[in-house]
Amino acid sequence: xxxxxxxxxxxxxxxxxxxxxxxxxxxxxxxxxxxxxxxxxxxxxxxxxxxxxxxxxxxxxxxxxxxxxxxxxxxxxxxxxxxxxxxxxxxxxxxxxxxxxxxxxxxxxxxxxxxxxxxxxxxxxxxxxxxxxxxxxxxxxxxxxxxxxxxxxxxxxxxxxxxxxxxxxxxxxxxxxxxxxxxxxxxxxxxxxxxxxxxxxxxxxxxxxxxxxxxxxxxxxxxxxxxxxxxxxxxxxxxxxxxxxxxxxxxxxxxxxxxxxxxxxxxxxxxxxxxxxxxxxxxxxxxxxxxxxxxxxxxxxxxxxxxxxxxxxxxxxxxxxxxxxxxxxxxxxxxxxxxxxxxxxxxxxxxxxxxxxxxxxxxxxxxxxxxxxxxxxxxxxxxxxxxxxxxxxxxxxxxxxxxxxxxxxxxxxxxxxxxxxxxxxxxxxx
Length: 430
Hints:
This protein is α/β, with parallel strands linked by helices. The protein is built from nine helices and 18 strands.
C-alpha cells in the first residue's frame, strides 16, 4: 500500500501525477488499449433463428428459411455510428451451424438459401458496411455446431472449425475482435466435443495479429460473468489466468473472478459486458414492445463503461434484414442523453461555479501504465467544511460515480490505498 494522496482541484484541470510504473506490472497491449477506448460496440445476432422465431436452433433448419427481404448492412452501421458506437460484431455462425458466408466446409450456409439467389455473402457485406462508416468489424463463430456431423468427433471437428476460422480471418481483411464462448454439447455420436483452445487462439493470433480475442478465458478480453449489462464493482483489468483456464470452465469462484478480476492478477485481461436491447438475442416480433428504455440503456452505460468495462450491446436485425425503428430510436435517445449528461466537463471551466450543480464525477487512470488505485474518495466543498461525494475501489480506464446534484466550489481526491505506482489520473465533473 502506498500512503494517502490528496489532490486539491479548483480552477484548473484535475491531474494527479504518480510515479513511473513498477517493472513487471501488467499493462494493456496497443490492441487492448484501442479496444477499451472505443467504449461501445454493437452485437448483431442474425441467422436462421431470426426466421424460425427461436433463440437456439437445433441445426435441422432448412437453409431456405434464411430469406431477408431488404437486408442493408449499411443501415446497421449508420445506426451504430450515429449512436456513438465504434465497432460491430456479427454472428457469422451461431450454435445451429448455419454460416452467413459461402463456406467450403458445409452446405448449411447462405449459399443454399434464396437470399441473393444463393450468391450472397453476409460477412462480406457486414465488413464492407463497417469500413464504409468507419467502424471496426468483429466476428463470432460459435464453437458449438449442432449441424456438423463431425461434432463430437473432436479431432475431425476441430480441423473443420479451424478451416472455418481460416476462411473468416483471411478473406475479409482486418478483423478487430474475434469472439468466442464456451457453449458445448454432445455430437451425433453422443460424445461431448473437446475444443482445442490453444490451437484456436494460436490460429487467430497468427492470421489476425492485431485483433483482440474475447472469451470467458480471454486471452485478451474476458466475459464479465453475466448477460445483465452489469460489470463488477470493483472490476480489475488484471486477472489470475489460472482461475478461468478455458472458455466454458465451471467451478467455484469462476463467476466472481470474471466479475471482479483480481487486484493481484498477473495478466491484463479487461472485461466486456454483453447484454441485449431486447429480452432475447435474436429478433422476435413479440418483443417489439419490450425494447429497453433510454433510461435503462443509459444505466447500462454507467454499469459497464462506468465500471472499467466495455459495453457490447446486442441489437438484432429483423426478418427484413434491418434494425427495427424502435431499437434505432432508443439507440439515438441513449446517445442524446449521454451527450447531455457528459457533454460539458465543469473542470475545464475557469472555476467551479456555485450556481451550477454537479452530479457526476468521472475518474480515469492512465492505463498505459497499468491499474494502481485500490481505494479512493471524492470530497467536495462549497466554501465550508469538506463532505463526501463518492467513494470506491478500482478506477482503471474509467469510473463514473453519481450523487445528488450538489453545488461546489472545490473538490478533493483522496487515495487511501494504491497498489503500485502508476501514471496520471484525470477527473471530470458534470
